[in-house]
Amino acid sequence: MITAPARSAWLLLIAGLAGWLASFTLTVERFKLFVDPNYVTSCSINSVLSCGSIMKTDQAAVFGFPNPLFGIVGFSVVVTLGVLAVVNVGFPRWIWGGLWIGTVLGVAAICWLIFQSLYRINALCPYCMVVWAATPILFAVTTQETWGRSRGIMGILAEWRWTLVVVFYAIVLLLVFLKFQDYWLSLV
C-alpha cells in the first residue's frame, strides 16, 4: 500500500475539485446552449475569452458528446481518491498506476485541446484553462506516488516532475501570449 504524504493528498484533492468544478460548469453551460442556441455563456467575455464559440465546434465533442463529461467522470475519481488520501488511506500500486495512466491521457487530451483552441478555433475558454492548470498538477502527484520509488527513467521523471509542470505552464503561457498578443497588449 502506498500512502500519499499530506501535501500530495491535498494537491490531489484541490486540483481534482478545481477540475471537477470547471468540467461541471462547462457541462451546465453546454446544456444551456443546447436548449437556447442564443444563450451567452458565463465564460464568454469577449472574442478571445469565449467558451460559447468553442462549445459550438466539433472539437468540443470529440466522441459525439461534450468533452467536459470526461472531466466530470475523471475528476470525480480523483476527488474521491483525494479525500481518501487526505485521511491517510493507502492505495495499492495498481490504483496509483491507473490514476497515473488517466493523468497521462488527460495531459495528452489537454495538449490537443490547447492546440485546437489556439490554432484552429482561435479562442480561449477560461473554464478549460482551469482544467489545463489542474491536470499537470495531478500528473506530478501521480507520477511521484507511482514512480517516485523507482529507478531508471521513471524515477528520473518522478524526480523532475515539478520542473516539467513549470516548463509546461511556461510554454502554454508563451503560446497563449504570442497567439493573442495584440489583445493582451491592448489591455496595457
UniProtKB/TrEMBL annotation:
Originating organism: Nocardia neocaledoniensis
Record-linked CDD domains: VKOR_5 (cd12922)
Domain Vitamin K epoxide reductase: 5-146
Family in the record: Belongs to the VKOR family.
Protein name in UniProt: Putative membrane protein
Primary localization: membrane
Keyword annotations of the record: Disulfide bond, Membrane, Oxidoreductase, Quinone, Redox-active center, Transmembrane, Transmembrane helix
Pfam families tied to this protein: VKOR
